[in-house]
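Before the break, one more example. Copy the sequence into your notebook; we will annotate it together after we see the structure.
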Amino acid sequence: MLLTGLAAALVTALLPPVPAVASPVADHYHTATSTSDNSPRKGVTVSCPEGQIVYGFGGATVDSDGNVALVGIFPSEDLTTVTAIAQARGGWVGNWSVRAAATCWAPGDQALQRIVGPGGWASCPGGKMLYSSGYAVSSTTGSAYADAVVPSPDLSGVYVRGGGAPAAGLQVTAVALCGLRMPQAGTLPDYKERTEDTVPVSAESTTTTVAPLPQWQGLGYVFVFGAGVSSTRPGMFIDALGPGPELAHGWARMSRGTSALRGQAMVADDEDEVTVYGVCIGSWY
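Here is what the structure looks like once it is written out:
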């Protein structure tokens, strides 16, 4: 469980922060990338090795220069694959590709399952917590995008918000990968935490930031299996989201397209920000 209140204060006082343990993730982070061309919409699927399932996932557009929205990232129901789907915005015709990422391990005792929530909220069933978050957005006009994916502070679910299309034709589906807690490490409790970092909206077409591992990690391993992101500036859309390759941070990129596409996102406000969230889970072995 999360360490809170007096217990957290006592632990912090008695146990100084422990440096991160080098995590054995090299053989567990897998990606697949689509062909690069000027197709307006494309998708790609990455598979876990035989005998392994998805523990975390993400996706990103590549060489899109802020002109392509990531409109879907989600694992298959049996958790053996991850699919990423992207859509070029505003008739943009440059060459680009989309990448899907999956973090895979043997099933273990976490009883992982995919929860799909039409309407933008997916809640983990009792006794389980959020490991990774995804979504799918669509519209009758083909102009939909996701502009917020926010794991709840207690990691009980994920909220997704869509934009870019009239509300009547906009469909938003939240996807939560939920599971039981990790095995306890030593005498310390199992661990979950949502970390975050906030940066100003960049003057460039895209804003990228990362959410780190928690400062206090205890024993064993703490991994970032999922991520979320949101912005206070209307009109920005997600074009990359997920855990980093070493599972040491959650990362995201939000874009506002070329000058012809930016619209509301071009309206400058010195206080506009992008916040990225990391879904941190431990302890492992």
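The CA atoms of residues 8 and 14 lie 10 Å apart. The mean pLDDT is 83. Try to locate both features in your own notes.
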